[in-house]
Amino acid sequence: MKRMTSIPVLLVLILSLAACGSGDKSSADQPADTAKTDTSANDNTSDNNDTKPSEGDKEATGANAKDNEKDSPAATANPMDLSQYYTSDKPIEKESDKSHILWKQGSVTLKASLGKPNEQEKPETSQVVSSLTVDQKDHHIEVKLDPRPYNVPMAALSADESYLALSAEYHETSTLVIIDLKNGTYSTLNQQLEKNGKNRLEILPTFSWSPQGNVLAFSYGLISELSWGLYDADQMKLTFMPPAEGVQSLISTSYVMWSKDGQTVSYISENPSDQMKLYRYGIADASTVKVRDLTREEFDKFLKFSSYILNAS
User: Fold this and answer.
1) Residue-level pLDDT at 74
2) Proportion of the chain in helix, strand, coil states, percent, rounded to 5
3) What b/e readout covers 226-261, taking b as 16+ CB neighbours within 10 angstroms?
4) H-helix or E-strand containing 226?
5) Within the chain, which residues score under 50 in pLDDT?
6) pLDDT at 73
7) Which class is 76-305 in CATH?
8) Distance from C-alpha of 53 to C-alpha of 79, rounded to nearest angstrom
9) How high is the pLDDT of residue 10?
């Protein structure tokens, strides 16, 4: 009896083992199906990777994002936050009377002697600049302009003291002189503008150097018909700023200011009559200009950005 009982038990064990073997085979087949599914998933991932940036693109995107972050404060800052605008930390000394003009900043000294006009220069003026010199350490530069100007009302020194810009004033006209302090040469921006087809010139009344590089922002044109531009003194390259929407020309330009990071330049100009507005351009893309109306009280706050030399004539 014991023997007969053990046989069914053995049969049960054998059947159980066979069933387990069958289950193992089913499980062994499963990875192949799973591998097929993974291949399909990998194909989709590959397609997605085609739309994702490469490591180099990621770096470029990151750099652009940083640039945008850097540009953003200057582009979006409140125009009335005067701390955003660049001013040199080098103090300016200036004095003037009926006989001379003296202007000093950093290592540069500008001197102009004023005298009486000759018969040909009368009656348009009661004084002329009889001599004009610029000194920087051991360099002495004599600036000789023909005809002789009546006054030197404005001057601005570049951030690295490589260039001096000054305005030579005549009867209802002016010339903007750029002095290269590195080699002692000078030229007029008027000549550069005329070479670029800007022949309708009377005045270049307002200008300002960038905080980095040697780029001069300025206004130019006819009296009451002004435009704006940039001049890269190192490259001798002009850039003309597009007019703001609905503005063909400006009646006057009082101030030109750069942001501290050099990413924007702002012009305060009159348009229409007796209405002062601030026009802000991005240097990287000047196609869009932001405009803000200024009250008389707001306009007066920008006086410290003037490059005028006080002159009692």
Assistant:
1) 73
2) 30, 35, 35
3) bbbbbbebeeeebeebeebeebeebbbbbbbbbbbe
4) strand 225-232
5) 1-71, 311-313
6) 66
7) mainly beta
8) 37
9) 34
156 Cβ neighbours under 8 A, 6+ residues apart = 164, 165, 166, 207, 208, 209, 216, 307
What are the extents of the domains in the chain? 76-305
What is the pLDDT at residue 269?
97
Amino acid at 142: E
DSSP summary character for residue 161: S
Helix (H) or strand (E) holding 108: strand 108-115
> What gap in Å lies between CA 220 and CA 254, rounded to an integer?
12
Question: CB–CB of 207/217 below 8 Å?
Answer: yes
Reduce the DSSP state of residue 250 to 3 states and report it: strand
Over the stretch 284-301, which tens digit does the pLDDT of each residue have?
988 889 999 999 999 999
pLDDT of residue 60: 35
Query: What are the beta bridge partners of residue 157?
Result: 164
- Can you list the alpha helix ranges (DSSP code H) found in 52-143? 55-76
Both tokens of 170, joined, read 């005549």
Side-by-side strand order, sheet with 185-188: 151-157, 163-169, 174-180, 185-188
With contact defined as beta carbons under 8 Å apart, do 174 and 204 qualify? Answer: yes
Q: Which residues pair with 188 in a beta bridge?
A: 177
pLDDT at 225: 94
pTM reported for the whole predicted model: 0.75
Residue 40 confidence (pLDDT)? 32
174-200 as b/e: b if 16+ CB within 10 A = bbbbbbbbeeeebeebbebbeeeebee
| Count helices and strands in the chain by DSSP H and E runs | 4, 17
